[in-house]
Amino acid sequence: MSSSQGIRKYAATVIQGSKVIDRADNISFMDLIKFIKKYNPSVVALDNIFELAESIRDLKKIALMLPLNIKIVQVTGSPEHGFKTLESLALANGLTCKSKLSPLESSEIIARLASMNIGYIVEVFEPKTIVTISPSKITKKGGMSSERYRRGIEGQILMLCKDIESKLKLSGLDYDLYIRRSYGGISNAKFVVFCSRENLHGIIHGKKGYVNIRIYPAPSKTLIFKPISETALMSTQSKRNDYLIVGVDPGMVTGIAALNVNGELLLLTSKRGIDRSEIIKIILEYGTPIAISSDVNPPPRLVEKLASSLNLILYTPSRSLRVSEKTSLVQSFVDEHKVNPPQDPHQRDALAAAIKAFQSFKNKMEQAEAHAQSLGLSVSHNDLRALIIKGYSISEALNMLSKPISISETPPAIKLPIWQQPNVENLIKKLSIQRTIINTLVKKLKSSNDEISYLKLKIRDLECEIERIKSEEHLKIRKEREIETLRSRIEELSKSFTAQSLYIDKLRSDIENAKKNLMALVKGEIVPVKILRTIQQSSIKEIQNTIGIGRFDILYVQDSSSYSIEAIKELAKLDILGVISKNPPNHLVEAFEGNGIPIVNYDEANITWIFDIPFININAINQIKELKNKLNEKVKSIKRIQLEKLISEYRSKRL
């Protein structure tokens, strides 16, 4: 395939073996896609992959438009291995002697070069497939409450997730599963299946509706160029020589921590949405893992799979670590080693798991080193610690490191003398016996394989049953917690109801009393009392400006701790009937009575309050009137005596 400059037009040639099947010249991009789908070739070859798209992102989109089994090949080279011109490749392989080729001629030469295994496969996707299960963007359904609808959708996602997981297990496909749980089941799920998209045909099907199942190949972060004849294998070799104790906290955000065998921190990170292969790549950048650990017991499925795929020692604590334990463990480590603290809970949990694992191995590693020193052995410190972590005893580890075994590649041939050479007939008999034994063993092996297959199916069934029980147990625990929460809430509401009932009873009682007092007010049995804040002229002015002070009014003084003689005289001028005060001091009583105003103690006045307004009954008013009359008589008597005294003094002066 070849393209022309300017507006993108393409030339394409389809070959089978050495025969040209079809050609197309000067066609548009969409016509090119239709042309490819028509013949569904095994390889789409180009001299420059960016003739298809201007960016890696666009190239990935175009790759999704092509049939899944098609390989994209660039025949002219790769960034790592260098490039050659199409003309030079054609000349070198005897395809043409021209120095200038037309687009159609170029497309045929490109196709023939690819058929000769010349060029590089451009891997746009990784050899794994993503399967997502998620609700559609519809949030409501007519006639159904949104909350009930949401629970129904989450329950449906849970069932689909179990169904897909069961199919993957029966098919023997390796996968990782990431889920987000909710009250109704699962809010969304993501499978990372370690196989190409076409291998899932007939096993899992996409779906659209209230719940969407989306299946797509995992895009590679960068373009990978591999020779056509090369088989892609994931390397498990590390770029560094450090032995690692790894802690992993899996989830939507995965935390990874790695210590060397001396307990020094080499790696601490957290990444969103990474799968097992990406975790392995990150770890191998820092050394060779020998142990992997988790902060919970039982360990997550992903941690078990990492241990199995990398053949690592799996460490788990006797019980799941509490948050306070992990925080204390990590803080002590950070303070001791002067390293940066974790940036999030995922890093903290991964580091806590790695530290806990290292501490479990530390004592035995130190014993092994002390033993080697006492024996005078010169062994690798790191290798010794690594063997101890792998589970070897101290003596086994020291023997392995102190006595290396060398095996020659080709042992010397030993020629036997004629009298020692075996008899042919005896050898034939022995061979026949050996064949019988082999046939018997083959039958036993087949029987064992059949039994293993049966047991594997049984194990898968049991795993599904365990997952079901775990899910039911999880829901049961959540229900019990919610019931306990509801009980506490009911108890709180019951207490609140009791308090409110008492308050309502009090209000009812107050209303009944108010009704009685209002009737008494209507009948003239009680009279309102005006409230005076203090015995100061400012307070008198304040009340006069609002409700006024009239003749024969009774005032209730709120604060009698201080008073003004001018204020008392002003009240006397207003000719009020009397004053009520709580425990008035003697000097205050004398001051009021000296101005003809009776003052009565609050406790003796029989005051009734109706909505913050004081009232006094008619009997108390009559008593105050009597006191007022007595004071008036007393004042008149005093004034009469004073007048008589003045007259007497005047007369005596005249005489």
Describe this structure in words.
- Helix content is 48%, strand content 23%.
- With 655 residues, the chain is α/β, with parallel strands linked by helices.
- The protein has 4 domains: 2-118, no CATH class; 127-219, 2-Layer Sandwich (Alpha-Beta Plaits), CATH 3.30.70; 243-374, MutS, connector domain (Nucleotidyltransferase, domain 5, 2-Layer Sandwich); 526-647, Alpha-Beta Plaits, CATH 3.30.70.
- Strands 4, 5, 8, 9, 10 and 11 form a 6-stranded mixed β-sheet that branches.
- The longest helix has 100 residues, at 424-523.
Task: Give a short synopsis of this structure.
The protein has 655 residues and is an alpha/beta fold.
Supply database-style keywords.
655 residues; alpha/beta; Nucleotidyltransferase, domain 5; 4 domains; six-stranded mixed β-sheet; 17 helices; 23 strands; 48% helix; elongated
**Count of DSSP helices?**
17
Look at the structure and give the CATH class of the largest domain. Answer: Alpha Beta
Shape: elongated
Strand percentage: 15-25%
> What is the structural class?
alpha/beta
Q: What is the tally of beta strands?
A: 23
- Mean pLDDT equals 82
Secondary-structure arrangement, i.e. CATH architecture of the largest domain = 2-Layer Sandwich
Kindly state the percentage of residues in helix: 40-55%
Q: What oligomerization state is this entry in? A: single chain
